[in-house]
Amino acid sequence: MTRPIATEARIRGRVQGVAFRAWTQAQAEKQELRGWVTNNPDGSVSALFVGPKAIVDDMVAQLWGGPGAAVVEDVAAREVDIPAELPEVFMILR
């Protein structure tokens, strides 16, 4: 089995008020990733994806599309340590 990785992503553009978090959760769940997605006060969205590298990389690439009403201007992603406390599923944080 492949060792999981964790990637943190920050998505900028018109990504709040367009169901971006729900879309991200649905895509991550389809790929059986763990982690979370949340809105940031500056209007961006942050997410943490944990799973096999190829699947995590694919999920990060999908962020450029987002749901129909989104306009993604930038996706900044970096690999991070897997957090000690990690949800068993992919969650939307408020």
What would you note in describing this structure?
This protein is an alpha+beta fold and 94 residues long. The chain has one domain: Alpha-Beta Plaits (2-Layer Sandwich), CATH 3.30.70.100. It has 2 helices and 5 strands, in the order βαββαββ. The chain has helices spanning 20-30, 53-62, and strands at 5-14, 34-39, 45-51, 71-80, 90-92. A 5-stranded mixed beta sheet has the order 4-1-3-2-5. The longest helix has 11 residues, at 20-30. The N and C termini lie far apart (33 Å). The model has no long low-confidence stretch (mean pLDDT 96).
Annotation keywords:
94 residues; alpha+beta; Alpha-Beta Plaits; five-stranded mixed β-sheet; 2 helices; 5 strands; 22% helix; 38% strand; globular; acylphosphatase activity; hydrolase; Acylphosphatase_CS; EC 3.6.1.7
Count helical runs.
2
The arrangement of helices and strands along the chain is EHEEHEE
- Backbone shape: globular
Query: Mean of residue pLDDT?
Result: 96
In CATH, the topology is named Alpha-Beta Plaits
User: Structural class of the secondary elements?
Assistant: alpha+beta
Number of domains: 1
Catalytic activity: an acyl phosphate + H2O = a carboxylate + phosphate + H(+)
EC number: 3.6.1.7
Protein name: acylphosphatase
Active site: 21, 39
Topology:
Layout: E1 5-14, H1 20-30, E2 34-39, E3 45-51, H2 53-62, E4 71-80, E5 90-92
Parallel strand pairs: 2-5
Antiparallel strand pairs: 1-3, 1-4, 2-3
Summarize the structure.
The chain is of the alpha+beta class and 94 residues long.
